[in-house]
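Intended use. Records like the one below are meant for learning the mapping from a protein sequence to its folded structure. Do not use them to infer anything beyond what is encoded.
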Amino acid sequence: MEMKVEVYDTSQELGKAAGIQAAQLIREAIEINGTAYIILATGTSQLETLKQLVSEDINWSKVVLFHLDEYIGLPVTHPASFRKYLQERFISKVASLKAACLINGEADPQQECERLETLITAHTIDVALVGIGENGHLAFNDPPADFETETPYLVVNLDAVCKQQQMGEGWFKSIEDVPQKAISMSVKQIMKSTNIICSVPDERKAIAVKNCLKQEVSNLYPASILQTHANCAIYLDKAAASLLYDQAD
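Structure written out for the chain above:
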């Protein structure tokens, strides 16, 4: 199946469409299997998608949540904490989930990776919501990304472009405040998901979108691996898609 790419006028329209599609897939998984296993991303790219998702009619008591990545050593009270993000923008806005398997960036990193591995490898993920970073990263797998490891969660170093993005989006006051390391879901673990929905708004992502969708698959453009997934839908706004097509298109 060819990767589906949809372009919308605004980030709000993008998020609504992505959220509606995600909800439909979650409902189908519950109907077929009794439980839906999902992965949620964080950051500004996911705001509109999650806003739509929490408004959907879903039996959340049959949903198990995993999340993509978390900074190492960052308190859950910090504005940039992804656990805080998910608690405020998702978990607190839906009925009680069956389980929420969040990454504890304040725990021993290797032990936390092993704990999460035990949890996630017991299940098949039905729906993964992801984004694409300004450097083309998928989760915190910065280029050159490891496409080969089977380990579900990794300790990774954040590159300069990634850290600049986090500061630029307003999560940190200075580049020095951005943690050096994070725990990230691996590329292979993300790709094991039955369905992937990728939401990418904003012109600052346009170069990364072009590289990841138009270039050959390469770990220098980590999200280019999505080209090989059987059920992946990319939702863009016009700004993020602005370099994909010739001006005559």
